Amino acid sequence: YWRLAERYRCTYLSAVPTVLAALANVPLDGADIRSLRYCRTGAAILAPELAARFERLFGMHVHESLGMTEMAGISTITPPGVDAPAGCVGWRLPYTQLRIVALDAHGNASGQDMPPGEAGMVLFKSPNLFSGFLDAADTAKAFTPDGWLATGDLGFVDAEGRLNLSGRSKDLIIRSGHNIDPKVIEDALGAHPAVQLCAAVGAPDAYAGELPVVYATLVPGAEATAAELLAFTAGRVDEAVARPRWVQVLDTMPVTNVGKIFKPELRLRAACHTVAALVDAACAELGAEGAREVLPDGDNAVRVMIATDGTPDAAEALQARLDAMLAPLPVRTTVQVVQAKA
């Protein structure tokens, strides 16, 4: 990659954070990249550790911007020559209007404007804003009653008028009514030198609704245990309720076609993990033996299939116990217990 940048004297590098993380593992090997004068990222929030690592390795400050299809591209930008902190996506474009409003009880945009420095949902109005979706119901969800686009992004405007992002409203982890910003957890774990990418999501819990958990991939050649990463993260998250319950290391992080980390898949993985733990507990409690599978069932449900070695009465008892244990979870589950064939 860097040899191509050297050969064609590229001046501008643009990539999503997951690609920047991959490039950080590609050594220069003597390539002359002094022609590169500007590096920009978007599509997802840049982790502070990744920003620092990229600048340390290649001498380029990563400038962030905010863009969306609904506004035909860029909405805010950090121009060359401005070194802003990670998460700062810069100033709004000319003729663009920007508001930060508080969230309502359902996590949607309210009509209450937030003062500078206070976080809320980001709203936009501009000449390049689209008029709506084909489905009127989708349009109603996307706009406030007075015509502002509710982006779903969370952030604040700093003293210099720049927009700073912290995450997405739909990605908030809600634990017993307490809103946890996953970025707090991700920034903490992302500071570990062995971590390449990480993402925090909510795992379903019968009592709290959701519990914070986190997934990570490691830098090629690096080693770290889940227990080590969990202790590292817990020591850097101040709020006790925001400390993750567990860390799981993945070979690859699920991403979308444009390179964003795909959190719906991680939430479904976390749901399967929670359900599997309860299935194991129920089987141990009743002394049930046999093959068991816990699998995603569509986009937001979990299916449990068990072929027990026990009697019909034992299978019925296990079915009843599992139904009772899984019913309080805020995720749809389907359980099927059958007798294993002799």
Descriptive overview:
The protein is of the alpha+beta class. The protein has 3 domains: 2-168, ANL, N-terminal domain (Rossmann fold); 172-261, ANL, C-terminal domain (GMP Synthetase, Chain A, domain 3), CATH 3.30.300; 271-339, Alpha-Beta Plaits (2-Layer Sandwich). It has 8 helices and 18 strands. It has helices at 2-7, 17-23, 48-58, 136-142, 182-190, 226-234, 263-286, 312-326, and strands spanning 12-14, 38-41, 62-68, 73-77, 88-92, 97-103, 109-113, 120-125, 149-157, 163-168, 173-175, 178-180, 195-205, 209-218, 247-249, 290-296, 301-308, 332-339. The strands form 4 sheets. It has a 10-stranded mixed beta sheet. Strands 13-14-15 form a 3-stranded mixed beta sheet. The mean pLDDT is 92.
List keywords for this structure.
342 residues, alpha+beta, Rossmann fold, GMP Synthetase, Chain A, domain 3, Alpha-Beta Plaits, ten-stranded mixed sheet, three-stranded mixed sheet, 32% strand, globular
Write the layout of secondary structure elements.
Layout: H1 2-7, E1 12-14, H2 17-23, E2 38-41, H3 48-58, E3 62-68, E4 73-77, E5 88-92, E6 97-103, E7 109-113, E8 120-125, H4 136-142, E9 149-157, E10 163-168, E11 173-175, E12 178-180, H5 182-190, E13 195-205, E14 209-218, H6 226-234, E15 247-249, H7 263-286, E16 290-296, E17 301-308, H8 312-326, E18 332-339
Parallel strand pairs: 1-2, 2-3, 14-15, 17-18
Antiparallel strand pairs: 3-4, 4-5, 5-10, 6-7, 6-8, 8-9, 9-10, 11-12, 13-14, 16-17
